Amino acid sequence: MQMKPAQPVQSPDTRATMTLQEPENPGQNTGSNLPAPELLKDIATRPPMALSDFESLADANNPTLKQANAIVRKSQEQARQAGLYPNPSIGYQGEQIRGGSYGGGEQGGFVQQTIVLGGKLGLRRNLYEQQKRSDLIGVTEQTYRVHNDVQQAFYDALTAQAMVQLHQRLLGVALDAVETVHQLSNVGQADAPDILQTEVEAEQAKVEYVTAQRQYLQTFRALAALAGKGDLPATSLHGELEKTPDLNADEMVNSIAADSPTVKRAQQEAEVAQARLKDARRESVPDLQLRAGEQYNGEQVSENPTKAAGAQSFATAGINIPLWNRNQGNVGAAKAEIERARQDVTREQLSLRQQAAPLAQSYLAARFEVDRYKTQLIPRAARAYELYLKKYQNMAQAYPQVLVSQRTLFQLQISYLMALHDVWRSAIALQNYTLTGGLDHPTSSGSSSTMINLPNNSGNE
Fold it and tell me: What is the DSSP letter of 375?
């Protein structure tokens, strides 16, 4: 079967056939003769769309890609916040305050600042920067997910469009057969069973034609949703269904296990775990607390004349001693997280091989089917139908055998289209690292916390 490139879906010739009748009983009519509904008649007036059109729409409108980029911006802002220096404090201080004739006491103000030591701010910032790198890989990963689903949906719809065209031709053949059998009945070469049987085939062809149109509309709606334009009017599609990709399936499996964004993200998560361990180890380094101020001392230092001590300064400095709590529990947890992250890389690689290997075999099997249908089965069936039809027209063959050969031919053509569809689905999945979920919520490497290094804390997270 040599298929032409997909064209705008045209309305089949659903012309009215001759009035249903039995030559032996002219007054007997069975059923009615209604044309098949034309559900796609408006599509031909709109320009066809190609796969690249839907990918461009998805890149601009699919909400998950915008979410993935928002996650990157979130990690970037978290990194900025984590590295900010703690704010200074100011306050009032008073001691031994007395009134009356005694006077005295000390009153004044102070400034206090925490000096973060050990490079902890840089390590905290680096943790979120590593998470940002993971989230950037997540954008690439989500892009593959969206493109995979859009491409799969496009070829689902392209196959459905080809099915409409195939059932359109089948309907035309069936309607021609009805006219032929009526003409033969007029000269006494066909009887009532022949007429009724051909009309049954025509009505069945109408049902299948309408079903094919509904299937096309369904697949187009799914494609439009993935492209982020759920209200996009249905159009015809431009694509080459028979021009299937030629892949080395075994190499694709190895490439997926080595180069998938999922694997790269798992490897980056191991880097995040390493950054968390460095941060946990350094958190035991104490910060330096500095405090200085100026105050007035009202204590009298002489009685005649009366004189107060007056202005004086003070300063303090101190650190916590990491005696009991050296953050050892968090350090141990960070080490365990590194081991978990490293094993997750291996797990992802094995999982991808588990998914890709069956796809590779499905791709090869479908390619073999396509070749056999195209070069062996359909040519034979087409020739058999042609010969049976010629014999019938020469009144040397019963019509039921023509129907059987016709059904066989069209069923093989349907199977050919489905085999092409299977080739495309398997190939697209392999080319996109088996990633699916074009409308699934993308995940973040870190948390969504907005409580990082708050302005009113002492400098710790």
Answer: I
